[in-house]
Structure formats: C-alpha cells, structure tokens
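okkk here we go again. third time trying to get the pyridoxal-5'-phosphate bound version out, last two times i messed up the smiles copy paste (missing a bracket lol). double checked this time i swear
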Amino acid sequence: MALVNEHFFKLPNNYLFSDIAKKVNAFKVSHPKTDLIRLGIGDVTRPLPQASIEAMHKAVDELANKETFHGYGPEQGYDFLIDAVIRNDYAPRGVYLEPGEVFISDGAKSDTGNIGDILRHDNSIGVTDPIYPVYIDSNVMCGRAGILEDGRWSNVVYLPCLSENNFVPEIPDRRIDILYLCYPNNPTGTVISKAELKKWVNYALENDTLILYDAAYEAYIQDPDIPHSIYEIKGAKKVAIEFRSFSKTAGFTGVRCGYTVVPKELTAATLEGERIPLNRMWNRRQCTKFNGTSYITQRGAEAIYTPEGKKQVKAIIQYY
Ligand SMILES: *Cc1c(COP(=O)(O)O)cnc(C)c1O
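finally!!
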C-alpha cells in the first residue's frame, strides 16, 4: 500500500490564488456591471523586451542545426548567463560572487518552494505577515510548519506588517532558525533601507538564523539608498540565500527564468553541530531533481543585460 504525504491535508483547502479567482468569478456573476480592481494574483501585461525576443529566435535557429544544437545543459545554468548576472546585478554594487554561487532556475517560486529540501523538517520558521503564500505552504507540505491552530501554524513565528507599524516588521524577541524576507515586498509594496536590513543580518549572525531573501521585485527599486541585494550588507553571505526572478523584471512569467544565490561561505548545522556548506547541498539537490532551464530561455534572459536589453527593461519598468 502506498501511503500519501498526509501533511498535504493540513493545507487550507486550496492554493490561495485559485481561491481568490473563484471568489472573483462568483462576484462578477452577481455584480455584472461593477468594475473590479484585482488585488489577487497579478501578471505582467507588457510583452517581452525585443532583445530577448531576438535572442530567443536566434537560439531556436541554433537548435535547428547539428553543429550548434544544445541538449542537456548544466543543471546550474549556462556560464554565459551566470557571468551576465554576476557582472550586471552584483559587481556594480560591490558584491563579488563566484560563478559556482549562482544557480539559474525556472523561477523564484520553484526555488523558494524547493529550498526546504536541504533543511531539516523541524526548523522553526519566521515570516513577515502578510506574505507570499509559497513560503508557508511549502513548509506545511513537509510538516515543518507544525499544526494549524486558529489560522496560525504552530511552528511559524509571524512578524506583523500593519499600518500601525508602517508595514515594517519588528526584529523578533526570540531566535528563529529560518526567516523569510521579501523586499521590495509583495504584497505590501514596502522597501527596506540598508540600515533596517543590517539589523536583520545582524540578528541572523547573532542567532545563527538562515535568511531566505526573495528579491523578485529588485528591479523596481528607484531610490539609490535602497539595497538591491542582501549581500550589500556586510556579513550577509554567511547567513542568506537570495532569490531573483526575471518574471517581474522582464516579463518572463510565462517564459520561466530566475536564479538563486547560495554563497560558498553560508553554512548550516547538523544535529551534532558540524557546519555544512549549503552551496554544496543545493548543488546536489539541483543536479538530482532539476535538469536546467532551457537554452532558449537562458539566451533570452542573457539578452536583457545587453545595452538594448537594459534600455527596454527600463522602459517596461517605467511603464509599471
Ligand atoms: C512573482 C513572485 C515570485 C515568483 O516568481 P517566478 O520567478 O515567476 O516564479 C516570487 N516571489 C514573489 C514575492 C513574487 O511576487
């Protein structure tokens, strides 16, 4: 007899967004003349940057030819894209990464959901509240969130973001093993200053906390004093994994591409207290369960770092 993973039964009936879609549809039927502003799941509305379109067409043509065909690529992503990421997204901000620290993925949802594979089932979790539902649901699925009591998970520390505190969460008064932070934030839209982010990095350094930093909206930062990467804060490479996505940056929601940075100096402990580099574990996980983002997609993503691509992305972001 095959037994199911019963943790799934603890999940609130449905994925939040399909729930909202049902409610919206029901409302539209009962209020046919009312205009709706949707604050549920969104999507980009602008087409891909022209530079990506051209690069992807070219990549398709390469695949049509025996001499330039690409089959399985590296599970970690092609060097051309990893190098473009390091050169454009990090080096100009004084963050120096090795190619082996960047893992190209099919988007930030997969990676923020899958990262739990390399972490024990009984770590405590901290989340800002409200949050992107993947952070909690993916922990529920492996039992890490504990049990649901009055709409709260027993193993999750909630850090409220309310109008009363200007949507800025307070540093917790106890230690947490794994903390999810998302800046610029979905859904509140808040950003975090360097001084404020430094407090979180210091909290993590003092409490041996792993920060899972979702920077999917990094490209939307306008203020020069707001950090784009958590690694702009000293010591962050010891405590944080950063997730990025081309979805909101360049309209890749349907194409699927993002990346995850796991610094080589980042470690977590075994029960016996031995420190293990998470980079090695994530690499092992990806090599086993992921076969890389498509060549066409990675060429399309690389193109946003060309001079034309940068201009086009800037215009798209300006539009939003
Ligand atoms: C959209 C979004 C993602 C997922 O992006 P994909 O790369 O398309 O999977 C991750 N985190 C947040 C907060 C998002 O809003």
